[in-house]
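Quick entry between incubations.
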Amino acid sequence: MKKFLVKRLLISMVLLVFVSMIIYGIMRCMPASFVETKAMELAQKPGAKSYEEWLAQLNASYGLDSGIIQGYFTWASKAVRGQFGDSWNYNQPVLQKFSSVIWYSFALAFSAFFLEIIIAIPAGVAAARKQYSATDYSITVIALIGISLPSFFFATILKWVFAVKLNWLDLYGIVGRMHQQMSPMGQILDMAKHMIMPVATLTIVGIGSLMRYTRTNMLEVLNSDYIRTARAKGLPERKVINYHAFRNILIPIITLLGGTLPGLFGGALITETLFQIPGIGYTSYQCIVLGDIPFVMFYMLFSAVLILAGNLIADILYAVVDPRVRVN
Amino acid sequence: MGSEEKDKLVHQEDSILEVSHLKKYFPVKGGFFGGVTGEVKAVDDVSFRIKRGSTMGLVGESGCGKSTTGRTILRLIEKTSGTVLFNGEDVSQADKKKLRELRTKMQIIFQDPYSSLSPRLPVGEIIGEAVRQHNLVPKEQYNDYITQVMLNCGLQEYHKDRYPHEFSGGQRQRICIARALALKPEFIVCDEPVSALDVSIQAQIINLLKELQEKMNLTYLFISHDLSVVEHISDTIGVMYLGGLVETGETEDIFSNPLHPYTRALFSAIPMPDPDMKINRTILEGDIPSPANPPKGCKFHTRCKDCMAVCKEVAPEERDVGNGHMVRCHLYDQG
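Done. Structure below.
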């Protein structure tokens, strides 16, 4: 196990180097860079220097006057020491900006993730137990609707019903108008209230695949010989499902969920934008559009680390739940 | 089924299992709306009795409904019609609670010891789980009891904490047997228990089953397509073809005097260990017909070399040719 972990960590390091290299290359090659936009802006001011002069000056001050490869190594040598520089767009340290927005995304994603699990897994199990029944078909149809229709569609419907028609919730934003005047407890509740619609959107969109996945795996397990053995033993059906069958669908489910863990920090770009939640998805989207290299580099690297960590977690969990893997 | 009233099953004291006109039809779904378009007659009117403490062998080629018969008897699959009496009690009338109780008395050993053990449970738990569930032994004796069952089946105590994947096929089948025996059953359906094993291991398992039968006065329904194994272990034999029994009787009678053309063909296919021996094989032509659309008259007439005109029209009745040797064939009509 130790050997396995060391090996995996080393491979991950190598992967991160290549990932960062590729992203840096792409960022530098993007048309309409941050510097060009800014030079254009400054050159249009009355009595300003010409665009070319501003461009040369800004390139030098933002460190873009060197080649891509040299630029990458300059960035990398600082990054390995934990210096990710200042965000060009926000004019504050990348890490500071990042830590101020990440928790909105995490709270949003975690609530949705939790709801997805407690809804989708029992629904998938129920659908599998009564295959081809009315229950199965209705769960499947709901799941397919969730998978097929885009999040902005649901978000819009939710907004129309709960914000426009019923006027229960605010249309967007993370806090209400009276937020500053509220007690600490009231402030938390106010934010929670603003999270309802984004979380509902994410849950509905995410529920389908997990439910289908559970159903498929459960069906496979329920048709296996050892479930027949368990029934032949005279165990109650509840025990056959919860003890024998459920244990066996844990592996694929945990592997799937482990893989989605990074998504909890990755931000939900569309949903955050629709509800104007100042999370990491919304923030990094703006940075990508503006060509804010330090912030985007950090965000991308962070996502890569999360994905690699997610896979590693899944593999470790896999070993925990599967005795056959544990031995090796 | 008007005939069911007529030959209502009479329970005989020495029979542990009495099966009468058992039928299991599986619906065939098809068409645009997924409606039922037909049925597969997997088990079609099967009747037999098994005496307490004896072994009945059920033979036939693949797909003839042997396993379905075994599973339908245990209600692992719900029957379409017919009666199954276990110790004089109608199995199909049992409610959920009663059925769970019956499950301890009627056990099954499956064909594939690789897939029939849950990969997520240690062996001790696989064997003991149901014992606790049914409170078969007092708590303080539980551990010793499981150990004893394992020892009886040729397993060691330290195997308890291991997982099924750590065992060989033969050992896994021993686990399956131990699992079934731990419930103190009276009757065990052995559904091709040795087909997945090496020949040398087959002998060990067969001998273990025989030994346990003597020790615990068990009754077996031994399903197999391996005739030499069946001859070795069975007291009576039933030969199945396309969902129906074509011949039943004592093992010696059937082996020394096979009557039905299908039984003869089956027996002539037994491989002989002597390469120089000339055997007059009866090779069956064609495939087994589809059980969704069985032939009219005698089901075997499409492949029978003694086929007569009557065979294509009329299904033969069961006929006793002496000593409880029953056969369904028009060749023996005149007797």
